[in-house]
Amino acid sequence: MSAREAILQKARRALADVPDVEPVLDVAVVRPAPERDRSREEVVDLFAERVADYRAVVERATSSTVVQQVAAALRGREPSAGAGPLRILVPPGFPPEWVPDDVEVVHDGPDVAVSELDRCDGVLSTAAVGIADTGTIVLDHGEGQGRRAATLVPDLHVCMVRADQVVPAVPEAVAALDPVRPHTWISGPSATSDIELDRVEGVHGPRTLHVLIVGS
Description:
Elements: H1 3-14, H2 40-53, E1 57-62, H3 66-74, E2 87-90, E3 104-107, H4 114-118, E4 122-126, E5 129-131, E6 136-139, E7 156-162, E8 166-167, H5 170-176, E9 184-186, E10 191-193, E11 199-201, E12 208-215
Parallel strand pairs: 1-12, 2-3, 2-4, 4-7, 5-8, 7-12
Antiparallel strand pairs: 5-6, 6-9, 10-11
Organism: Pseudonocardia ammonioxydans
Protein name: L-lactate dehydrogenase complex protein LldG
Domain LUD: 116-214
């Protein structure tokens, strides 16, 4: 007799005097209470609040101020090479008018090695969706968002989310996303904690997340 058969035989003997009873699951179905309709401004306000809860930097911007605010988000960071302008990764399709003039632009593409991404001081990107309830930004890596490695390797991620891309909750976000595209869901900068609950940032993604909510 094999070990498997011996175990099964013991299990059958142990259950020999147990009557066959149809299991009854007494599970209460809990449905979320209906939530009052939020205005567009309230949804965007909640999104900003929840993103900030993750220790990300959140600012409001307009199409006329966004380039100055991107420059301010980059200001004060030390160039990786110790001299010269900051090296900023820019994915294909990112609005060129939102890129500051005083940076060295690294145009991302499939031929740019990960080691080159690691030499960049930051990355600029747009987003696909912002989720108010969770403070989550979703990238589907379309125009202006870059490949997944582009927003995971550099230490700073400056992400532009249009106010009209912010939805109230996860179901609306899922409905708005293309299911055949790859998705990256970002809730704050990269952070983890060890057994002593010491928070460490930048281990598996950007140490700093700077979000600009771009309105009209």
